[in-house]
Amino acid sequence: ETGVTQTPRHLVMGMTNKKSLKCEQHLGHNAMYWYKQSAKKPLELMFVYSLEERVENNSVPSRFSPECPNSSHLFLHLHTLQPEDSALYLCASSQDSGRDQPQHFGDGTRLSIL
Amino acid sequence: AQTVTQSQPEMSVQEAETVTLSCTYDTSESDYYLFWYKQPPSRQMILVIRQEAYKQQNATENRFSVNFQKAAKSFSLKISDSQLGDAAMYFCAYGDSNYQLIWGAGTKLIIKP
User: Fold this and answer.
1) B105 touches A37 (CB < 8 A)
2) A49 touches chain B (CB under 8 A)
3) Which of A36, A100, A104, B9 is most buried by a 10 A CB count?
4) Are A55 and B103 in contact (CB < 8 Å)?
5) Is the dihedral of CA B97, A6, B48, A70 positive or negative?
């Protein structure tokens, strides 16, 4: 399924670098999400956007900065990350942000912080 | 706050046999949704099945079915006639009233040929 595309697939960066993760959905959905997936832990919801407005920010450190310029695109800007931020970052979308909505996921970006 | 617990970090099953993955959750809400998602190795997370809490009937999708016990707050996934392509991490998730899916830690399913 290519409905949700994430780039890059892999990213290695130093703690002082600035980089951005990109997500694009081709499903006509109105809600988009960023998750952090670490081994043997539940997915952690980071941000939710509905109709390009942020509706949820789960106490994420300010070194993660989301941007949603339109309903098809979502970015996660990274700055001064820590080693514990190494993880798989997943983007997802759904028709709207209701609790009954199935979410469609991208392949993720594997982030490694040196 | 809602929580989701998957007590089996790993399960294995012989090809063509049936396996059941466990999920329990804690909530004070009466109306909610429950989901099972599958994440194959290095591939996308995909929805397996969805259950609406106010529906008594257990959801079914081909070889996948759930045993939803609302009073016990249990939502197990049964996979019949297991196939090699079923090997994956399986995640149980609860759809709460604040736009969020609350996720379990996952169960790794191994299919033995």
Assistant:
1) no
2) no
3) A104
4) no
5) positive
The answer to whether the Cβ–Cβ distance between A42 and B4 falls below 8 Å is: yes
3-state secondary structure of B16: coil
**How far is it, in rounded angstroms, from Cα A83 to Cα A38?**
12
Q: Encoding tokens for residue A3?
A: 């409905």
Nearest partner of B105 among A88, A37, A36, A41, judged by Cα: A41
- Per-residue pLDDT reduced to its tens digit, B54-86: 988 999 999 999 999 999 999 999 999 999 999
C-alpha span between B60 and B73 (Å, rounded): 18
Q: Which one of A1, A2, A40, A43 makes the best mutation probe of the B interface by having the most chain B beta carbons within 10 Å?
A: A43
Report the pLDDT value the prediction gives residue B27, as an integer from 0 to 100. Answer: 92
Tokens of B56: 């008594």
Q: Give the type of residue at A46.
A: M
3-state class percentages of chain B: helix first, strand second, coil last, to nearest 5: 5, 50, 45
Among B42, B46, B97, the residue with its CB nearest the CB of A99 is B97
The token pair that represents B86 in the structure block = 């079923």
Residue B33, beta-bridge partner list? B52, B95
